[in-house]
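Bit of a strange request maybe. I'm writing a small parser for structure token strings and I need a real example to test against, not something I typed by hand. Could someone generate the tokens for this chain?
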Amino acid sequence: MNGVLIIDKPAGLTSHDVVDRVRRILHERSVGHLGTLDPLATGVLPLLIGNLTRLAQFYTTSEKAYQGVMRFGFATDTYDAEGEPSTPAAEVQVSLEEIEALAAGFRGPIEQMPPPFSAKKIHGVPAYKLARKHKEVVLQPVKVEVKELEILSVEGERATFRARVASGTYVRSLAHDMGKALGCGAHLESLRRTAVAEFDISDGHTLDELDAAAQTSQAEELFIHPRRILPGLPSVTANDETAARIRSGRAANLPELSRARLVKVFYGQRELIAIASRVAGTLFHPKIVLAVSQAAPTVK
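Reply from user aminoacidic:
Good idea to test on real output. This should exercise your parser:
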């Protein structure tokens, strides 16, 4: 079973919890996700299944989009609502104009300190493991990019926002740093991821929906159409002879659609068999083979 499935992750589960459940539902061991979501967060969790787990290398720098709520008045040790208060609570009333002006300073390329409760490694140990043991967590600021940050509404001490960020950006840190800049502390109260790369929340399915579909052997109908994957790469359709060469890892001449360096190679409309790189002219060599030929039965 090969495909891309978008799960609408519920709150309370880790990304690994979701992967484990999907493995059990589909009876498929090869399942991986594209970008961790904290247990608090909900929304888009793209899963690569079967041989398509090999496509993960193309998504390491994917943009992500979110909608959520920041609560001003106190910070927490995890930078979100699941942590313990790390600053005294204060009653605050923030205005839309005040938060919009604050947000302007956090758009574009910025330096950001990752949360102490994060997967960032310190001498090979994830920071959150040290933080849980109340050990010192010394992290270095990293350069990230907040491509869009729109304040949608403000009510009392809460600000609802929408953001689009480059890979590696912590929205929890964004809330924490905005509260620090305002002088009253803040944390991320809720978060919903609405997009990762080309995958949108409208593509999402709940775990219950997947389970129900699997019961009637229709789980693959929930998968993203393979032609939508990696839209930045042109698609070419191989004939029988060319597909056989590609499946066996050999170079082949493909239809000339563009001067692209990489192309997606399909057999038929839905079977993505390889990502191939141009050698010269129309000659391409498979960079990643995603579907191989079935071995012919041995005749005795």
